[in-house]
Structure formats: C-alpha cells, structure tokens
Write a structure and sequence with these properties.
Low-confidence stretches: 172-178
Strand content: 5-15%
Order of helices and strands: EEHHEE
Radius of gyration: 66 Å
Distance between the termini: 183 Å
Number of helices: 2
Structural class: mainly alpha
Helix content: over 70%
Mean pLDDT: 85
Shape: rod-shaped
Strand order of the largest sheet: 1-2
Number of strands: 4
Length: about 180
C-alpha cells in the first residue's frame, strides 16, 4: 500500500483518503472565499463610482411626475364629485317635477270625474225633462183626441163607421161607398 508522509506523520490507506478530502475541502473553501472577496471588491468599486446626483435628478423627475399625476387624480376626483352632485341635483329636480305632474294629473282626473258626473246628471235631468215633456204632450194629445172623439160621438148628426174608423159621406151606415 502506498504511504504518504506529511508533517512528520505517516498516512496509509483510509487516512490518506481523509487527508485528501480535507485538503480538497480546504482548497475549495479558499477558492470560494477568494471569489466572494473578488465580487465584493468589484461591487465596492461600482458603488464608489455611482453618480448620486444623477440618481437624485432621476428621483426628482419621478417625484414631479407623481405630483403631476396626483394633481390630475385630484382634479379627476373633484370633477367626479361635481358630476355626482349635478346628477343628484338633476335627479331631485326631476323627481320634484314628476311629483308635481302626478299631483296635477290627480287634480285633472278629479276635475274630469266631476265634469263627467255633472254632465251625467245634466243628461239624466234633460232626459227626464224630455220624457216628462213627451208624456205631458202625449197626455194632452190624448185628452184632445178623446175630447174630439167624444164630441163626434155626442153629435147625432155625424155618422161614423167604427169598422173603418172613417166618417161616411152620406152620414149613414157607410153603405154606398166603395
């Protein structure tokens, strides 16, 4: 078997493998630390070379844009509130107009009902008046007719054919007339 002597110690077999593993781990850790330190130094140089005035200018521009946008947003909010208030006022005004029109409609409806009732009453009165007048005229005509009939019946000189309800020319029984 192979032997390795290091620092006054002799390593054989398995110990030699452990020593190689420890040395490779130590070498890898040293290489990692070196790379980390190199990256750190590169970043330190980049940070040292950063122009902060340019960053500040860029930040101010962004702040101005945000302020302008905030102003626009505030204007839009005010405009929206104004529109909302105007719409509410318009809606309230329309509602008041609708209420007024409904009241007028109810009043007109009541007036029309009254007019219809009065017209109906006038028509009923007129109809009754016409009916009464007609009945009076019929009764008067009937009375006059009855009086004339009675006068004819009471007159012995008048001959009347009751079958034909016509007076005869001879004054007799109605014979001789064709």
């Amino acid at each position: 078997m192979a032997e390795v002597e290091f620092g006054g110690m002799t390593f054989k077999g398995g110990k030699m493998m452990v020593l190689l593993t420890a040395l490779s781990t130590l070498g890898g850790a040293s290489w990692g630390a070196f790379e980390f330190y190199a990256d750190y130094m590169d970043m330190k140089e980049i940070v040292a070379n950063i122009d902060t005035t340019q960053i500040e200018i860029r930040n101010k521009i962004i702040e101005q844009k945000i302020a302008a946008a905030q102003g626009s947003v505030d204007e839009a909010i005010d405009y929206s509130r104004s529109i909302k208030n105007d719409l509410r006022d318009d809606f309230n005004r329309m509602e008041a107009n609708v209420d007024r029109v409904e009241d007028q409609n109810r009043e007109l409806e009541d007036k029309v009902k009254d007019m219809i009732d009065k017209a109906d009453e006038r028509f009923d009165n007129k109809r009754e008046s016409l009916q009464t007048d007609t009945e009076i005229k019929i009764n008067a005509l009937e009375d006059r007719l009855n009086m004339k009939i009675q006068a004819v019946l009471d007159n012995p000189l008048a001959s009347f054919d009751f079958d034909k309800l016509e007076p005869t020319a001879s004054g007799g029984s109605g014979e001789g007339k064709d």
